[in-house]
Task: inverse folding
């Protein structure tokens, strides 16, 4: 989206603010969404926090609980979450998170319906869209990937 | 999004073209889906659809934030914001006008609405409005963008 394609602003003075904000909004978005995974991963790995027992990820299906998937997802949330937050190997982890969320939507949340207040699909669906964006955009400004100058 | 297409070198150079092709479409897809997501919540509050609580229950629930919120006007405002604002963000009409109201709505929800319930989204905590609020900052920063009424009109806030 080139800046020249932008419609005329009704309050032109805001243009430079939007330019500044849109440059850093993605970095904030990537940082926040990465950090958001970490407490879930800590819970998955260590049971650090209390979550109501019903419909936790662990109940999803027996094939998930009887294997290393819990550890994998927990590590993905903690390590991948931190890496996405700092923008290191961003796409490598974002791709895995997208797949994990897709599985969560179909196995856990869709049966609860739509509304997030009933632990429905709405919440993970929004995360699917967020992480697809991170998968497409990669590290972006203020990321380790950008500092290294090479990324997936 | 405007400024993030200066890409580093790629480990798999062929993927660069794919990312560039998708980058153009992610933002409008995100704006459409994210705006549409709020419409059913507005339909609950305005029309009592989808097994919604009664208006009295909503007012009571809003009232837990303080005496100021104990008023059906706030339920109608949030319902209208979710329904009409959700539709407008989806079609990209007055995108920033509605996005900034959603940012305010989510901020109040973090501190007053959902905050007292704890953190986790699964218990209705403040995780949900916090991260949705950050997503609205992206929409506020970028405005209508591709596939939007704002762009078709050639003018936006």
Result:
């Amino acid at each position: 989206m080139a800046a020249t394609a932008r419609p005329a602003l009704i309050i032109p003075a805001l243009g430079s603010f939007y330019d500044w904000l849109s440059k850093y909004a993605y970095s904030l978005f990537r940082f926040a969404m990465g950090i958001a995974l970490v407490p879930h991963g800590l819970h998955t790995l260590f049971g650090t926090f209390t979550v109501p027992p019903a419909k936790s990820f662990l109940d999803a299906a027996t094939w998930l609980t009887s294997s290393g998937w819990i550890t994998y997802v927990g590590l993905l949330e903690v390590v991948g979450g931190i890496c996405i937050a700092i923008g290191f190997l961003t796409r490598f982890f974002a791709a895995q998170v997208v797949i994990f969320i897709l599985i969560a939507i179909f196995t856990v949340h869709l049966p609860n319906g739509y509304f997030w207040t009933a632990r429905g699909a709405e919440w993970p669906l929004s995360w699917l869209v967020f992480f697809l964006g991170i998968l497409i955009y990669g590290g972006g400004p203020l990321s380790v990937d950008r500092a290294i100058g090479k990324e997936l | 999004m405007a400024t993030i297409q200066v890409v580093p070198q790629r480990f798999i150079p062929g993927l660069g073209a794919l990312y560039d092709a998708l980058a153009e479409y992610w933002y409008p897809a995100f704006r459409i889906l994210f705006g549409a997501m709020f419409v059913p919540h507005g339909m609950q509050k305005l029309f009592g659809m989808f097994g919604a609580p009664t208006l009295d229950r909503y007012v009571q629930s809003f009232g837990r934030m303080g005496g100021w919120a104990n008023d059906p006007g706030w339920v109608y405002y949030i319902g209208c914001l979710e329904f009409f604002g959700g539709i407008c963000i989806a079609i990209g009409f007055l995108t920033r006008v509605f996005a900034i109201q959603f940012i305010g709505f989510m901020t109040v929800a973090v501190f007053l609405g959902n905050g007292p319930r704890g953190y986790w989204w699964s218990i209705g905590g403040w995780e949900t409005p916090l991260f949705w609020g950050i997503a609205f900052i992206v929409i506020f920063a970028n405005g209508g963008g591709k596939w939007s009424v704002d762009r078709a009109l050639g003018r936006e806030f």
In short: Chain B has a mean pLDDT of 90. Residues 15-47 of chain B form the longest helix (33 residues).
